[in-house]
Amino acid sequence: METINKILEFEIFTIGDYTVKISNSSIFLILSTARLLLWLVKKGLARKSKLNKLDHGSSYALYQMMKYIIWIIAIAFLLENIGVKVTILLAGSGALLVGIGLGLQQTFNEFWKLIIRF
Hints:
Layout: H1 2-8, E1 11-15, E2 18-21, H2 26-50, H3 56-82, H4 86-92, H5 94-103, H6 105-117
Helix pairs in contact: 2-3
């Protein structure tokens, strides 16, 4: 167990007071997972489009919404990983998110109609 801790605490490089260690490489894992999820979503939507169950415009809109959601979650994980408290950011942006939600209400209504059709 001690050797694993030594490996995880190995310093890759240091800039000023900030040190990047192997344990911080979970950033790469988070970004890779987000890219993999986006690739899977894109392939799944392409398959639905080929089966004529989903038109190109709806497929593109659905992919864009999923892309934004996945990247927001990935960025939240990244910020938590480097030590930024995401809960404070989310609480501060509550009013902004309510405004965006009201503005996108019709778009999400269309989105749910597409999901129900499947």
